[in-house]
Amino acid sequence: MIIIKVGGGKAINWDYLAEDLSSINEKYIIVHGANAFMKEISNKLGITQNLITSPSGHISRYTDAKTLELLTMVYCGLVNKKIVSCLQKHKINAVGLSGADGKLWLGIKKETILSKVGTKTKIITDSLTGKVESVNVELISMLLDKNYTPVITIPAITKDGELINVDNDRAVSVMAKDLQVKTLVFLFEESGLLEKFNDPTSKIDRINKDDLEKYLESSEGRMKKKLLGVKEAFAFGVKSVYFGDGRIEKPVSQALKGNGTVIN
Amino acid sequence: MIIIKVGGGKAINWDYLAEDLSSINEKYIIVHGANAFMKEISNKLGITQNLITSPSGHISRYTDAKTLELLTMVYCGLVNKKIVSCLQKHKINAVGLSGADGKLWLGIKKETILSKVGTKTKIITDSLTGKVESVNVELISMLLDKNYTPVITIPAITKDGELINVDNDRAVSVMAKDLQVKTLVFLFEESGLLEKFNDPTSKIDRINKDDLEKYLESSEGRMKKKLLGVKEAFAFGVKSVYFGDGRIEKPVSQALKGNGTVIN
């Protein structure tokens, strides 16, 4: 089984991806983002998206109740159902789910979050964020057994039924653990992991998993989080991770052939 | 098995509903609307919601591509996940799905729609609306067998993977047919079917199903459509339909006791 995580950029070509999926001879699960659409709709609704920088330098979305509502609209509504429709057009029997449905992604909420503002550290107590701790293996297996393709996105849910924002990339590593998945594919709007930010000629072809820490230190923003998820995934038993370009034809096949960045 | 259709008004009390559901000794499926939220979000986004009056007097939403996107955001995103979260808080293992997921509600698109504007009749060709023709019984049964509660809403999907807006109430009657359901409960923001519009004292306690045509003629707007769905449901083998108040404690139990309007 493969987990395919697809970024939330507008240049991702879902038709190419759907065409390619019919050539994949394994079961697969799709996890997707929706960041570009989130920005667009929040601007239209006049909801300011605030970011938090943790003391260790991680940047994440400040998720208050309004932002969480917006997130369910954009991730579970607009984008998830666009993807389901596209996959169905290509004869893939997709079922779109959030991490909340059937407690698919069961998580815990962070009671407090530290936010670095200049030289000061603020304590935030109303952020509806957390992390996924376990996955509903029964529900996913049941769908896969009957040839449905799960298409999953945030939010996750706590045992008390509260919706929480989590990091999709890190949720993927918990899924890999619980479902004993050995292969992960991450598609985004780059040809692979770039040595130099925004320089497509600096693509790294291969990374030894033992060197991930080095790349983690030098990476920034969303890529840092992606690599953190990848590092966790290896600790959870994943054998190979493929980064690839979600804008090109046959994106999964190309990534699996090693035409993006291979980490193993 | 019971299908419980819950209206999309803001006064529906989902906590009361969820508490009540634990007392129901049968399997059930929930279908929900989101009309009030749709109005609110479309106003905020500056998307005008146009209505179409058919030559026979039925009023429906004019669903162009923009409206369909908004509809997925509000119905499948915001409201569906709010409901899933509420049910999960009450220990009901809800799984939120749209009619598009796993082709749950497979429908056909209307190629043209007639719209009465004053004395003229306009032909509309870009409306993404249609009707549900069949239901994915396998997917629903699979979920119910494992004690998941399906929470379903629009849109439906065509065999070609196109999302279409359909009438939730009429989709309920097709579900009743395919799943051989004999009992339907409709909860909304009234105490039952009212003889006089907006007059709560005029609640009708019981309607003979053979008299439905009479009530159809005298009803208007959304209630007319609801009664049309009910009429179809009886033709499809349903035995009893209960209209009840979605704002009160124990709304399903109260409706089943006959405290709203019973049609049989």
TrEMBL record, chains A, B:
> What molecular functions are annotated in GO for this chain?
acetylglutamate kinase activity; ATP binding
Protein's UniProt name: Acetylglutamate kinase
Presence of keyword Nucleotide-binding:
yes
Q: In which pathway does it act?
A: Amino-acid biosynthesis
User: What PANTHER family does this protein's entry cite?
Assistant: [LYSW]-AMINOADIPATE KINASE, N-ACETYLGLUTAMATE SYNTHASE
Cellular component aspect of the GO annotation:
cytoplasm
Q: Which UniProt keywords apply?
A: Amino-acid biosynthesis, ATP-binding, Kinase, Nucleotide-binding, Transferase
Every Aspartate/glutamate/uridylate kinase domain range: 1-239
Q: Transmembrane residues, as ranges? A: none
- GO biological processes: L-arginine biosynthetic process
Task: Tell me what organism the protein belongs to.
Answer: Candidatus Gottesmanbacteria bacterium RBG_16_37_8
Q: Does the keyword ATP-binding apply?
A: yes
- Cited SUPFAM superfamilies: Carbamate kinase-like
